[in-house]
Write a structure and sequence with these properties.
heterodimer, A: mainly alpha, 70% helix, elongated, B: 273 residues
C-alpha cells in the first residue's frame, strides 16, 4: 500500500518528483502489459509506455479528482497505442473516426494466413500473431476487451466512440480471428 | 465456420461470451444457441480464442524485468518536457523548474479555468519554485527570510542556522488551525462554505510546509520530516479536493486521524521547532 493515487497525482502536479515516480512505478506494469499485447514486441511496447507516461506527466493538472485513475490511464494507453500504430503505418493519415471503422470492417486480410500446420500447442501463438495483424482500432478494442476485461461501454467512453462502433470493431476483430482458426484447420478436437 | 445467422453477425455473441448481456437476453440467446449451428460455432470459436490467448504468457515488463533503462529514458523525456520532474532525485532539489512548469500553455489554461483556489495553488507553487530553486544552497531560517534571500540572490557562504527554533512557530500555529478546524467539523452537516477558510489557509501553507519537510529530510530530522510530510499530504488534499463533494471532508478527516496528525503536531509544539 501507499498513498492513494490521487494524492500522488496532487503531489506530482505540485512538483514532487517522488510522487510522480511512485505513480509510474505503480502503474507501469499495466501500461506495459497493454502496450505489449497491442504491439507484440518490447521495443514498441516501451515506446508506447513512454508516450503514455509523458502524456500523464503533461496532463497531471487536468486529471479530475472525481475520475478513476485507471479509466484515465486506460484512455491514454489506448490512444497511445492507436497513435503509435498510425505513426508507423499511416504517417499523416486520416483521423480516427466512424468512416474508418466501416472501412476497417470491409478491408480484406492482406497478410498471409497463419501457418496451416498450427495445432493446439501453437494455437495461442498463431492467434497472438493474428491479433497483431488486426487494424489498430480493432486491435485496441480486442486487447482492452479480451485482456483487460473492459466493458464495451468503458472502451467507448475511453475512446470517445459510440458503443455501437466499439461493438462493431470487436465483432470485426473476432470475425477475423475466427477466420484464422478456420484457416489454421483447427478442429474442435484439436483446440486447446 | 457455418453461414452466419443474424445473432452471430450482430456482435451479440461477443457480448454473450463476455457476460455483458442482461439476464433476459442471455437466457433467450442460450435457448437460441442450442438450436442454431452458426451461433453455437461462434460461441465455441470465441471460447477457443479466449482459452488459447489466455494461455499465452503475460508480458508486463521489459526483458529481465529491468525497468532501469525505461525509467532513465522517461526521466530524460520529462526533463525535456518543460523542465521536467527529476525522477531519480539527481538534482537534489527535485522540483520542476518553475518558469517552464507554470508557463506551459496547457497548464496555464487549466489554471485559468480552475478558479480562485487553483490560483492560490499556482501562487504557492510559484513561491515553492522560487524558493526551492536555490534550496540546496540556502540555509533554512524562515520562510520569509528564505524567500527574500532567494529573490535577492543565492547566499552561498552563509553558515547554516541552528535549526528550526527561530521559525515555524507561526507556520505551526496556522497549520494547527487548519488541521484542528478540519478535524472538529461535522462532515454530515458541513457545507463547502464551512471549511472555505481552512482550504484557503491550507493552500497558503503548502509551499512552506514542503520546504520545512525537505529541510528536515536534508538534516536527518526524521520525526520532523514525518510530521511535515503528513501535514503536506493533508494540506494538499485540502487544497485540491472538490469541496462540493460531500465525502471530501470525511476523507480528509480520516487522513488526519490515520496519520495521527493532531497528536503529532501537539508533540511538535511541545518540543518546538
Amino acid at each position: 500500500m501507499g498513498p492513494p493515487d490521487w494524492t500522488l497525482i496532487c503531489g506530482a502536479a505540485a512538483g514532487d518528483p517522488a510522487a510522480f515516480q511512485q505513480l509510474v512505478e505503480r502503474h507501469r506494469s499495466m501500461v506495459y502489459r497493454v502496450a505489449y499485447q497491442f504491439a507484440g514486441n518490447h521495443q514498441d511496447a516501451e515506446d508506447i509506455a513512454q508516450e503514455v507516461f509523458i502524456k500523464v506527466y503533461k496532463s497531471l493538472h487536468s486529471f479530475r479528482h472525481d475520475a478513476q485513475l485507471s479509466s484515465w490511464l486506460y484512455r491514454i494507453v489506448m490512444n497511445a497505442c492507436i497513435d503509435h500504430k498510425r505513426r508507423r503505418v499511416l504517417p499523416g493519415g486520416a483521423a480516427w473516426g466512424p468512416d474508418e471503422d466501416d472501412r476497417m470492417q470491409n478491408i480484406p486480410e492482406e497478410a498471409p494466413g497463419p501457418e496451416r500446420r498450427a495445432y493446439a500447442g501453437q494455437l495461442g501463438e498463431v492467434l497472438a500473431s493474428q491479433v497483431r495483424r488486426l487494424p489498430a482500432g480493432q486491435r485496441v478494442v480486442f486487447v482492452m476487451r479480451h485482456y483487460e476485461g473492459m466493458k464495451l461501454s468503458e472502451i467507448a467512453g475511453a475512446l470517445g466512440l459510440a458503443e455501437g462502433t466499439v461493438k462493431r470493431q470487436l465483432h470485426a476483430a473476432v470475425h477475423r480471428l475466427r477466420q484464422s482458426l478456420t484457416d489454421a484447420n483447427v478442429t474442435a478436437g484439436e483446440r486447446v | 465456420m457455418t453461414a452466419q445467422c443474424v445473432h452471430s453477425a450482430s456482435g451479440v455473441i461477443e457480448q454473450f461470451v463476455y457476460g455483458e448481456l442482461g439476464a433476459p437476453e442471455r437466457l433467450e440467446l442460450e435457448r437460441h444457441v442450442r438450436d442454431c449451428a452458426s451461433c453455437r460455432a461462434a460461441v465455441e470459436d470465441l471460447s477457443t480464442l479466449r482459452t488459447a490467448l489466455a494461455a499465452r504468457p503475460v508480458i508486463d515488463a521489459p526483458p529481465d524485468g529491468d525497468w532501469s533503462g525505461f525509467m532513465t529514458r522517461l526521466r530524460a523525456a520529462t526533463e525535456r518536457e518543460a523542465g521536467g520532474l527529476d525522477l531519480a532525485g539527481t538534482r537534489g532539489v527535485g522540483v520542476p523548474r518553475r518558469a517552464s512548469y507554470v508557463g506551459r500553455p496547457a497548464v496555464a489554461r487549466h489554471w485559468a479555468r480552475s478558479g480562485v483556489m487553483a490560483t492560490a495553488a499556482v501562487l504557492a507553487l510559484a513561491a515553492t519554485g522560487v524558493t526551492l530553486a536555490l534550496w540546496s544552497r540556502v540555509p533554512l531560517t524562515s520562510p520569509g527570510a528564505a524567500t527574500a534571500r532567494s529573490v535577492a540572490g543565492p547566499p552561498v557562504d552563509e553558515a547554516p542556522a541552528d535549526g528550526f527554533e527561530a521559525l515555524g512557530e507561526e507556520h505551526l500555529q496556522r497549520s494547527k488551525l487548519v488541521v484542528l478546524g478540519l478535524a472538529a467539523k461535522d462532515p454530515a452537516r458541513a457545507t463547502s462554505a464551512d471549511w472555505m477558510y481552512e482550504r484557503a489557509l491550507a493552500s497558503s501553507l503548502l509551499s512552506d510546509t514542503r520546504m520545512y519537510r525537505m529541510a528536515a529530510e536534508e538534516r536527518g530530522l526524521a520525526s520532523m520530516a514525518e510530521v511535515m510530510r503528513d501535514l503536506e499530504v493533508v494540506l494538499l488534499q485540502t487544497s485540491f479536493t472538490d469541496a462540493r463533494d460531500p465525502a471530501a471532508l470525511a476523507q480528509i478527516q480520516r487522513l488526519i486521524q490515520k496519520r495521527d496528525l493532531v497528536g503529532k503536531m501537539d508533540v511538535v509544539g511541545i518540543t518546538g521547532l
